[in-house]
Amino acid sequence: MSRACESAEELAVAKHTEALRRGFDVWPKLGFVPPALGDARWTPELILATWVEAETGRAPENGLEYRVGRSGGGFDRLDFDFSSPAHELPETAAVDTSISLGCRSERQREIPIPWYGAGMSYGSVSEQVMLARAKVARAWGTFTSTGEGGYPESLLTYREHVIVQVATGMFGVREETILSSPIVELKYAQGAKPGLGGHLLGDKATVAVARMRESVPWVSLLSPFPFHSVYSVEDHRKHVDWLRAIHPEALIAVKVSTPADVDMVAVGSYHAGADILQVDGGYGGTGAAPEIAKKNIAMPIELAIPRVHRCLLEEGIRDELTVLASGGVRTAWDVAKAIALGADGCVLGTTELVALGCTRCANCERGRGCPFGLTTTDPELSRLVEPDWGAERLSRLYGAFQREIERILRRLGIRSVRELRGRTDMLVYRGDGARDGR
Questions:
Q1: Is the model's pLDDT at 295 over the cut of 70?
Q2: Rounded Cα–Cα distance for residues 397 and 334 (Å)
Q3: Whole-number Cα distances in Å, 263 to 16, 298, 307, 310, 346
């Protein structure tokens, strides 16, 4: 490429980057909702509010709804019961938002906030996005997951805060990457497409992505369902033992979807030796996940969480397995509601992409389909997300979420987010949507 062409490309990238970043700041202040933004779960208001949180580090003060969407169900119908103000703690009262990962293990780790970053693989998102997420994970002392697309070398600097995922396609799975991570995640299913496996279209399988995944460029990649070596709890145990043999110091996380017997799946994972169980509902996933699968196969996450929680309590093992909820957790209020339903914490994926500019246009499966440089493998579009800029936005979002959770805890009279786990008595159902509890 000539110097003139390089200069023109630099100018084009700089122009679009500056315009996009100015838009993320200005759009929420316009007083009207821009067209072609969001959907029922991620309403235009909720997207704009998330941008405000990523820009300022605080919940919006201009009337934007930042707690719920308009899905007509799920977390949008739940609210907290703040009817007993006598129980409220003063604003100066210290509250603890930390949780433990790996409750029964000497390898137990603590994170200061009740969430970490979900698996979004190289190929499904750009390496720049992965770097931004790794940077904020280190800054906050939490974790982010590689997803199933391999482990880019640029993440090795942040290895103490990166979870490596081992999925059914085994893309990029190597002994050295497993050894690089404090947590190894076995992905058995994804809530957005349970029973279908993973799918990366050839348009996104660039030379760099294919090299990382040890595959052929421009050929679609399929992750089968399930692991064809796992058909029982005993087989599951062999997988866990295999990973422990490679990396004895690692925590083992297991990601599952929400079938009708998700409670039995949870018990099976416990007896297989898992430290962390990620229960992934059908509301998550990028725009590449088929709508028919997201809406018709898995159990809604708000039903799966209490079912798993109650079953583990009945088995007497609830305090020995960390349960994290994902697949439709959008806001700090969703995180708190999931914990009140029975989870220990949550795993955030789409929320982080929205903070970086996602408008839910659902073009994620195309190589050049994402106009914001997020879910793309195109080398030019990827440059729209600068990792330090992305990490700063995510860090401010994390700060806003933590403040909101602290505010919820104080209003409920609770000093630790761990005390909120399973407190369904603190939730109320609102038939017209939970838009009253500010």
A1: no
A2: 14
A3: 48, 13, 6, 8, 18
Cα gap 118→128, rounded to integer Å: 16
The encoded tokens of residue 227 equal 């692991």
Using one digit for the tens of pLDDT, what is the confidence trace for 221-250? 888 887 888 888 999 999 999 999 999 999
Per-residue pLDDT, averaged over 430-435, amounts to: 64
Q: Ramachandran region of residue 224, left (φ > 0), alpha (ψ -120 to 50) or beta?
A: beta
- Give CA–CA dist 113/263, Å, rounded: 26
**Is pLDDT of 6 > 70?**
no
Crossing angle of helices 44-56 and 387-412, in 10° steps, is 100
| Start-to-end Cα distance in the chain | 56
Q: Angle 237-115-251 (CA atoms, 0-180°, nearest 5)?
A: 30
> Strand pairing of 78-80 and 427-429?
antiparallel
What is the pLDDT confidence band of residue 7, given thresholds at 50, 70 and 90? confident
Say how far apart CA 356 and CA 371 lie, in whole Å: 12
- pLDDT value at residue 102: 93
| Cβ atoms of residues 386 and 135 within 8 Å | no
Q: How far apart are CA 90 and CA 192, in angstroms?
A: 41
CB atoms inside a 10 Å sphere around CB 120: 27
What token pair was written down for 301? 């996450």
Residue 26: alpha-carbon gap to chain centroid: 26
What sign does the dihedral 332-336-337-342 (CA atoms) show? positive
Contact by Cβ (8 Å): 343, 309 = yes
What φ, ψ does residue 269 adopt, rounded to 5°? -65, -40
The 8-class DSSP code of residue 80 comes to E
Q: What is the pLDDT of residue 293?
A: 65
Q: How do beta strands 144-145 and 162-166 pair? A: parallel
Which tokens sit at 170?
């085994």
Q: Check if the beta carbon of residue 372 is closer than 8 Å to that of residue 358.
A: yes
Q: What span, in angstroms and rounded, lies between the C-alpha atoms of 209 and 204? A: 8
pTM score: 0.94
Cite the DSSP H helix spans in 247-331.
262-272, 291-296, 301-315
- Per the rule left: phi > 0, alpha: psi between -120 and 50, beta: everything else, 130 is alpha
Q: How far apart are CA 285 and CA 375, in angstroms?
A: 12
CA dihedral 399, 405, 409, 412 (to 10 degrees): 140
Residue 329 pLDDT greater than 60, yes or no: yes
> Can you tell me which residue has the tokens 């416990």?
270
- Mean pLDDT, the chain, rounded, equals 90
